[in-house]
Specification:
The protein is mainly alpha-helical. Helix content is about 50%, strand content about 5%. It is built from 13 helices and seven strands. The chain has helices spanning about 10-30, 55-70, 70-80, 80-85, 100-115, 115-130, 170-180, 185-200, 235-250, 255-270, 295-310, 315-335, 365-375, and strands at about 135, 140, 160, 210, 220-225, 350, 355-360. The strands form three sheets. A three-stranded antiparallel sheet has the order 3-4-5, with no helix packed on it. The protein has a two-stranded antiparallel sheet with strand order 1-2. The chain has a two-stranded antiparallel sheet with strand order 6-7. The protein is globular, with a radius of gyration of 19 Å. The two termini are about 15 Å apart.
Length: about 375
């Protein structure tokens, strides 16, 4: 499609982009090669192992900034990340279905922008790994690896698929297009069809985990996971679903995926709070005291902008305006612009409320999707998810 230029001369958007640029420049100095996931109480990002599922988001921010500005220090900071992640293939690691989150914003975008052939090879290697997690009889991509502790709540997870995987399917679609082999696309569509059948409800709400018999492929039950319960509506999972379904339609042009994306998006838009930001789950019993999740908001906003590009013009504006409302709310009320010591971009992210983990913190994936969504408003075209 042609570049969207409707916002390029909006002074408020340009001024805010300058704030984002200043913030990311500080983060380059503050993070100094770390692999961040969430901030501590004093606003300092942690440093996770490279095989942790969020390891691609910080370099993804850097690649977007380079693509938008042409400033070499962003590329220099981002350029070795796909090489770092490649080392996880040759040592014991915990790579799983989230290799899309790790290699799309590193290897794939690096190849897309620079033509680097080693980055292409690494992206294809990740796609092969992801395809290898496909359960043939159940038509789903397995989520996590076996757990060593039988005491863990998700120990018996061999037949588990999760809604997050919708965002990783773009790696398979990219690989199919890159080498002209439809097998990757076949797997991605089979998984998306399973999500349509078992994860997305008629009202557009979504469950987090689907449990299947790994031998027969039969569906067993929905599991709440990071949501409030099996029948709840975890807001970040809904964001993963609307964005992932939109991407699946963009790659396939098969109408059922667009209809699924719209159904989920309509539920999300109707369920957010008055300030434009969702609670961590839309079906919690006592809404008054529950935390919001800015990471769900930023991911949904970027996904809504995708849907706005894919639907007919008479429908486009409702999704575009909803995305802009969310982005504006994040910018005005949840951005860390005035505290240079706080390393995150957005406040009030919620990682895993049922487990009591990472509540009211900055989350690097929330930061990534905020930058991505804003870059789209500025005309950015190199889609990687």
């Amino acid at each position: 499609m042609l570049m969207d230029t409707r916002y390029k001369h909006d002074p408020s958007v340009k001024d805010q982009w300058n704030l984002i640029t200043e913030k990311v420049d500080r983060m380059v100095l503050q993070l100094n090669g770390k692999s961040p996931h969430k901030t501590s109480a004093d606003g300092i990002y942690d440093n996770m192992q490279d095989d942790w599922w969020t390891s691609g988001f910080w370099p993804g921010i850097l690649w977007i900034m380079y693509d938008m500005t042409g400033k070499k220090h962003y590329m220099q900071e981002a350029s070795l990340w796909d090489e770092r992640l490649e080392q996880c293939w040759v040592r014991e690691s915990n790579l799983h279905h989230d290799v899309g989150f790790q290699f799309l914003p590193t290897a794939v975008i690096k190849h897309t922008i620079t033509g680097d052939l080693d980055a292409r090879r690494r992206g294809l290697q990740a796609a092969v790994f992801l395809a290898g997690r496909f359960n043939l009889v159940g038509n789903f991509i397995r989520a996590w690896n076996p757990l060593k502790s039988k005491d863990a709540w998700n120990y018996n997870n061999v037949g588990w698929a999760i809604i997050d995987s919708m965002m990783n399917l773009s790696l398979l679609f990219w690989a199919s297009a890159e080498i002209g082999d439809p097998r990757f696309s076949h797997i991605a569509k089979a998984h998306a069809d399973t999500v349509l059948k078992y994860f997305i409800r008629e009202d557009g709400s979504v469950c987090h985990i689907g449990s299947f018999n790994p031998e027969s492929g039969a569906f067993i039950e929905s599991i709440g996971g990071q949501g409030y319960g099996p029948n709840s509506a975890w807001s970040r999972g809904i964001a993963w679903a609307l964005y992932g379904m939109a991407n699946t339609y963009r790659y396939t042009l098969e109408e059922r995926y667009l209809q699924g994306a719209k159904r989920v998006a309509d539920f999300f838009i109707a369920s957010i709070e008055q300030d434009g930001i969702p609670l961590w789950d839309f079906r919690v019993e006592n809404r008054e005291n529950e935390p919001r999740d800015t990471s769900a908001a930023s991911c949904a906003a970027s996904g809504l902008l995708e849907i706005a590009r894919l639907v007919p013009m008479e429908e486009s504006m409702q999704y575009e305006l909803a995305a802009k409302r969310i982005i504006n709310a994040l910018t005005v009320n949840y951005g860390n612009w005035n505290n240079p010591q706080h390393q995150g971009i957005l406040r009030d992210g919620t990682g895993n409320k049922p487990a009591g983990q990472n509540i009211n913190v900055s989350l690097i994936y929330g930061d990534y999707f905020y930058v991505e969504a804003f870059a789209k408003l500025m005309g950015w075209e190199h889609r990687i998810f």
